[in-house]
């Protein structure tokens, strides 16, 4: 029998957590739902497909200071935040963090990201209804995939079914009031798997395919910035009266100067960059790391946000480039 | 009407007059529109035109300066084309303009389509493109110009503190994806000021102040050049009402110079010209 937490008990548990943790949860900001720190559980808005921006910004901020150097001595990297709870993270976004870990939480470790990941407990929220943009099942996940969170909640009539996944999750849930569930476990509607073509695109057709797709690209940075797994950055140094600060912010492979080094740009055209993006999102990790992971998790944010409707689901269908399922 | 576009596109491609026709096709949601580049006549059938064709396609001409290209434009898009022609960013003989008589478009985003005309279309005074080679549909009788800056007036009715906090809240969300810049037909610098590092005008620090700097700079660079297609606002992934800044400057330029961008190809833009007798003192136009 599954354990369940009643809705009112969830609120009091969160109030307890708020005493010792920074709790980041989906909240209404204007007409959007965004992951923001909350002060009381009442601020949480749970009526959402998914948030406009992924919760990756709480581990890998849009812009942050890496270090400062005053005169000769380097000052230590600032310790980021105290204990962090991400409440209501969707399975796709949680998988996104696992994907980010492959780059930022492995040698060479990204100090700030690693610290935040160690400090954080993820409380997942299973999706009851997939959005029209969702395709997590195509990318090897599912609306109720609990494999990347510490605790998974699934909404039922009388509360939330609680699945404790990790030791970290177990420690966190210890203070909550749980009971045996009377509700049957809900049936989760899964997005259909994108089948597409069965043959790989012939070499000869590829250049034309990417060039035609790139025609309408505006080379803005939206797709990369809303993506839960994009991690490219640009750095700048700020020098003020001998005090130097190294700042890093998000960057996108669609930008004109992407990976420009000493005047050389390896991906000078929109076509090059378009192909680069989709290869990186789809076959690149399985090809180079031998794992089943594609870096796309199927959240569909880029599908919704792209102003000219460059739709990764169509690319998957057209090129048969996705992870083996 | 759509048949006229298809026929024209086919004719232009078949005759070799253009190598590409830029128009609209149905988006992947089956509901809204997206840009389409037609190179082969068999793709002509994909072309559509309806109230969801919000995109200003003129921006794409800047990528295809060398080859003759045909483009489907609404009246507002045609004004953007006039601005580019006036600023010598495109050659008139390289572009074949398929103008649409346009009753207005609705607000769209992926898988969403509004019921009402966009606010800008409700006060639009130009339903026939000011420049075209081939007009689709019948010229629509121009309605009498209503007061078009009520949104600016409403906003200016607020106190300075209210306005500052409104923008601070809006710009806090900005992620500097630069979609507003990249979609804008008026933004075509090879190196944008925001990307210059020596000197650095805008920091990569994403504070509301730096974001404000970026957006105000963007708006000022479009003063007297913005034609009000509102693409910046449509593409913004975090829905910042950017066009309000542009509209304020449009209003100022209209009051100062009696000028609206893109109405014709020849009138020089006020901020790109100097007349001996023009008033230079700031604020004199209020007299």
Main beta sheet of chain A, described? Answer: 8 strands, mixed
- Tell the overall outline of chain B: globular
N→C terminal distance of chain B: 49 Å
Strand content of chain B: 5-15%
**Largest chain-chain contact?**
A-B, 41 and 38 residues
Low-confidence regions of chain B: none
SSE order of chain A in H/E notation? EHEEEEEHHEEEHEHHEEHHHH
Give the averaged pLDDT of chain A, no decimals.
88
Integer tally of domains of chain A: 2
Strand order in the largest sheet of chain A: 3-2-6-7-8-9-1-10
Can you put this structure into words, describing what you see?
The complex is a heterodimer of chains A (325) and B (287). Chain A is of the alpha+beta class and 325 residues long. Chain A is 29% helix and 21% strand. Chain A has two domains: 178 residues, no CATH class; 117 residues, no CATH class. Chain A is built from ten helices and twelve strands. Chain A has an eight-stranded mixed β-sheet with strand order 3-2-6-7-8-9-1-10. A four-stranded antiparallel β-sheet of chain A has the order 5-4-12-11, with no helix packed on it. In chain A, α5 packs across α7. The two termini of chain A are 30 Å apart. The mean pLDDT of chain A is 88. Chain B has 287 residues and is α/β, with parallel strands linked by helices. Chain B has two domains: 135 residues, no CATH class; 130 residues, no CATH class. In chain B, the strands form two sheets. In chain B, strands 2-1-3-4-7 form a five-stranded mixed β-sheet. Chain B has a two-stranded antiparallel sheet with strand order 5-6. Classes of the chains: A alpha+beta (325), B alpha/beta (287). At the A-B interface, α6, β11, β12 and α9 of A face β2, α6 and α8 of B.
